[in-house]
Amino acid sequence: MSKPRFQLPKLYESQDGWGPTSDVIPLKFQDIPYAPYSKGDKLGRVADWTNPDAQKQDNREVSGRTGRPGFNRFNRDQHQAYGAAFASTFAYTHTEDESSFSVVDNRSAAAKKMAIKAAGGQRGRVQTKQAPTGGSGFRTVNQRGGRQQQGRRKYGYKDYDKPQRVRNASINVGADWKMLDEIEFSRLSKLTFGIPEAEDVESYGSINYYNKAYDRVNTKNDKTLQHIERVKYDTTTSEDPIIQQFLQDNKATVFATDAVLSLLMCATRTVYPWDIVVKKIGDKVVLDKRPGGVFDYVTVNENAADPPAETDKDTINSWSALSNEATYINQNFARQVLDNKTPHTFAKPNPFASEDTKDKLASCGYRYRKFDLTSSTAEEDAERMYLMVRTEVDAAIKMGGQTSLMTVRALNEFDPNAQGAGNSLPWKKSLDSQRGAVVAAEMKNNAAKLARWAVQAMLAGADQLKLGYVARQDPKNNNRHVILGTQAYKPKDFAAQMNLSLNNGWGIVKAVADMCLQLPEGQYILLKDPNRPILRIYAVSSEDLEANDEDDEEEGEEETDKDN
């Protein structure tokens, strides 16, 4: 039996450089140059009948400056960086006239692409059929998982190719305004401060009790939204007579309303532009709002991937029209779900009512509460900082034999298939059976608005946050609405569900208060950049603010004339 033998192969040494030596190359390959290769090189196609325009696509995407083809999903497998220069050696050269040659498939390029797309879309689909929608059209029903696709757009593909949306600032920035500082949202999101305890100082007004019959409302037993005339005062901080008295009595250092404070605490979630008027009066700071500004309106789908746009083609679904619609819905829903029985009264009557309006007042309670924002390093009482906030509650409810306070808000649906709908489920079909999915979509599309509502409820010391679901009776008509359901939350649980950090919110308030206290006496504007996540503070004069307010009033009158 012979033993196994192992023999080393013959090694050839190349004196001229890298590559094979001339004495081992067969004669028929002598004239072919050596083409290096790597395992990353891709093989091309011998013939591609499915994409005849691929070469044209590559030619269109060549950069004029560098001459390199742009990367896309068509040519990503065709880049051969190593040894690609020798490809021309093996290229086929046309020696005959081929102008008379034509492919049997004479369909247009667009028709071929549609056929390829349709063929690719059938992969992985279990079964599709056409089912009636209840109207004149049909919808495709995908039976895999039982989920229905009714013209809902899928986001992500070619979203990079959209034009950049440019928004205008909430206030006209004057050329002579002096910018004092700017703060990025990334810095604001890292701030933190301990949650201070609230101290009740005064309470005014009266509130009606919640009508529990609206807890039984659902999509099959809906209620028509009614228009109810009531008067509700939302006076600015500096014009509030109670706060003016507190300012004279030196009850606090910083003064604000819950609307202004909640916006500051949730600033990092906001997308739309806004502004806050800062008034430094002696050693006190007043955080104010401008009449007719962003605080008087409710936003819709501000945080959606493709938020509503301002367009003349579809006016009822533009962001300004949707904001007016949402504001109208919130006002009337909060009035409709209350009963007209004996109200719950606070210690003092409404401070803003007059003889003409005292019988037409909406249900509202004003609670003035004080928070201690003193830093842990403060040693003397003179260094203590207190924040006085005017908070609001909308209703009362009997729970366990005791009266609890409640804030009432309404979410609204306009058209599930319109731009800015946020890929949400249609409420009339999904609210009862898939409420969790509906709420999750709202928390995503309206993260800033819902966070502000939760913060306002906690600032006011409310035990419940009552949310209503209001939809258009007809998606093409924004004048008639129906109430499809209600839901109650504990404000702290709702904030935790939204992953809202109260410590970060109070950290932002503390940082802004400290910054404003260091400013000289005067008026300033804290402005959120309309297109970037940045806060800026400008020094302005009272004349500039008055001029802006007059411009806003004129624009509002022009819009009213157009609507009429």
TrEMBL record:
Keywords, comma-separated and alphabetical: Cytoplasm, Initiation factor, Protein biosynthesis, RNA-binding
Pfam families the UniProt entry points to: eIF-3_zeta (PF05091)
Molecular function terms, GO-annotated: mRNA cap binding; translation initiation factor activity
Region (RNA gate): 294-308
Annotated stretches, region: Disordered: 45-72, 119-153, 543-564
GO biological process: cap-dependent translational initiation; formation of cytoplasmic translation initiation complex
GO CC terms in record: eukaryotic 43S preinitiation complex; eukaryotic 48S preinitiation complex; eukaryotic translation initiation factor 3 complex
Entry keyword annotation includes Nucleotidyltransferase: no
Subcellular localization, as worded in the UniProt entry: Cytoplasm
Domain-level remarks: The RNA gate region regulates mRNA cap recognition to prevent promiscuous mRNA-binding before assembly of eif3d into the full eukaryotic translation initiation factor 3 (eIF-3) complex.
Family membership noted in the UniProt record: Belongs to the eIF-3 subunit D family.
Function as written in the Swiss-Prot or TrEMBL entry: mRNA cap-binding component of the eukaryotic translation initiation factor 3 (eIF-3) complex, which is involved in protein synthesis of a specialized repertoire of mRNAs and, together with other initiation factors, stimulates binding of mRNA and methionyl-tRNAi to the 40S ribosome. The eIF-3 complex specifically targets and initiates translation of a subset of mRNAs involved in cell proliferation. In the eIF-3 complex, eif3d specifically recognizes and binds the 7-methylguanosine cap of a subset of mRNAs.
Record's subunit section: Component of the eukaryotic translation initiation factor 3 (eIF-3) complex.
Record-given protein name: Eukaryotic translation initiation factor 3 subunit D
Lineage: Eukaryota, Fungi, Fungi incertae sedis, Mucoromycota, Mucoromycotina
